[in-house]
Amino acid sequence: MTEIDKKQDRSPVPSVFEYSPAPESRDVVTLEDRYGLFIGGEFVEPRSGEFHPSVSPSSEEELAEVSYGGAEDVDAAVGAARTAFENGWSSWPAGERAKIIYRIARILQERAREFAVLESLDGGKPIRESRDVDLPLAAAHFFYYAGWADKLEYAFPNRTPRPLGVAAQIIPWNFPMLMLAWKVAPALAAGNTVVLKPAETTPLTALLFADVLRQAEVPPGVVNIVTGDGRAGSELVKHPDVDKVAFTGSTEVGKEIQRAVAGTTKKLTLELGGKAANVIFDDAPLDQAVEGIVNGIYFNQGHVCCAGSRLLVQESIYEQTIQKLKRRMSNLRVGDPLDKNTDIGAINSKAQLERIQELVRSGEEEGADVFQPECRLPEKGWWFAPTVFTSVAQSYRIAQEEIFGPVLSVLTFRTPDEAIEKANNTPYGLAAGVWTEKGSRILWMAQRLRAGVVWANTYNRFDPTSPFGGYKESGFGREGGLHGLEAYVRFE
Amino acid sequence: MTRLPVAKTYKLFVGGAFPRSESGRSYEIEGANVALGSRKDVRDAVRAAREAFPSWAGLTAYNRGQVLYRVAEIMEGRRAQFEELVGDQAEVDAAIDAWVWYAGWADKLAQVLGTSNPVAGPYFNFTIPEPTGVAGIVAPEEPPLLGLVERLAPALIGGNAVVVLASERRPLAAITLAEALATSDVPGGAVNIITGRKSELCAVLAGHMDVNALDLAGVVGDSTELERLAADNVKRVVRNGGGHSPWHAAAFLELKTVWHPIGV
Fold first, then answer.
1. Annotated catalytic residue A271
2. Active site annotation includes A375
3. Out of A14, A368, A388, B70, which residue is the most buried by the measure of CB atoms under 10 Å away?
4. Global pTM value
5. Considering A24, A114, A119, A305, which one is annotated as catalytic?
6. How far is residue A231's CA from residue A45's CA, in Å, rounded to a whole number?
């Protein structure tokens, strides 16, 4: 057993401020015992005959059984999407298409709490985040792209945009509803039909979304939802009648998908992993920067592809930054995702927890110093205390590999050139952060950081109007904004 | 005795210089001995491109536009030579005019492809295009000059450094174009041109881990295996591109979004 494991097993230590539990009620959510696949506007039994429980990572409770779609199921879903595309959806008046997407946005706003609670139950993220970030942003994405549906000719001047056809969309488990919105909203706005494959561990909000489609009166087959594991995703990517593949997930799987579509005319966009540098200069407003560091890496348990997982601190302020950071970390509350005071919820799955543990062990073995605040971790479920590594060399695995957990690696630099050199020293290029009071230096850094999103004096901000996506092995194509539409059109 | 003409040796164009293939090989084509580039020549060209990338991408857009405009000027002065090589006056006209057209895009791409994003919060947020890095271009076999220029200019104008695999059957126009580039203030290494067998070299370019984008325009036959190799480092694969348009330039561009809070 490593040092860390022991620390986590310690009995609870009282923190300075005792909070009474403030759980959000889960009564707002009604779950079926078992879910079929949503194909052609109705739930159908999976032809695969395969069901598995979706488990709450905070309690290990089995919430419901969901279908694991196989090749035949994927084929049925693609067929339903094709039929819907050919039989009307692609020729709907654009203004009417806009209105139906607006309806989705409105219904999501109306039912936001229900979705937020289910998101936290099924995925483990704090209710404060699912309530204040995931759901409002998901609704906003539908609202934003609804407005594009009847304005496409203005988005692409001098070109004639047309829908692609059937879009295969594979989304991850870290922001299930938000990623659904990022994918489905622009696809529908551009006139495509969709087969969505939610993540294996977080299928429930997507299945609840089927009820939103019913309420909004979205025609059958326009959005189909095939739950399952990687096999369903693979069948979907390979299906010959798919025109577009959009994937958010690991770089490893992204490469497999790029190989799988090689030689076809399928349009592909990939939003993959990251190892973002968050760069703190000596003139940065340090208290704000520390908040930004914490938000950058501990938001959503660090299950964020753009997480600021490499902290680059200018040497002259290293000691005080680390001191403030550790003090701030000791106030983070880890625990029940449904508790409104919780800052860090459950790790999404046992497999992910094991991956985090494995990488943290490697960090210790390679010689980095580890710090975790004393915190009480619940007995059931999968948890990992907020962790920071100092004395990290660039070559360490914890400085190179995406951990996708609440684990920060700290490196130092002396000059801006060195900061750029280190920040860009990764195959990834999704995001980066810069903290300094000097405007010219912000723009100088922003120019040189090889990343698709640069947050200056802020971190982890998202908006439907703001394009998101990576350089290098973090993928290609953008989601959000005007640029996000292009992924779902072809030009005549 | 009448004077003997001095024949030109057609060599590679790498890092701003005209080396022979490191392999010492050549092949006879279009009445000349042309360098038969090797896998190592391709790798050397990628390294030269990577080294040149910051200086080319770091020029102001105005300056980059002027440099490429100068390519058109130099070609105009050598047009007799190009006409003799390609045997088609109209093709030379179109190739020169393509440089002028794309040169003019240098300081307009960001205005057409970039956006200011009205986010729902107190933040200033904008998106700008940036070059992806090193672009590998498999040049079309025909037409020998215009085919290359229409693929090269859009990749170059956005600030990418480029490695070209020239037309295998008609490589002379590409090397002559390199002479125009070399005298046009294009930094050495920003454009590298390798002649040789595509069947031997395409896979090296497609699988190279320091190439960011791959233009398949001139691939002969099925490109599936090359596309699979390109996935090893998630290359941006350009099949048709966007024709003669800024959208073709955009195929070699990344989009960077920058956020900053607004406050006092």
1. yes
2. no
3. A388
4. 0.95
5. A305
6. 17
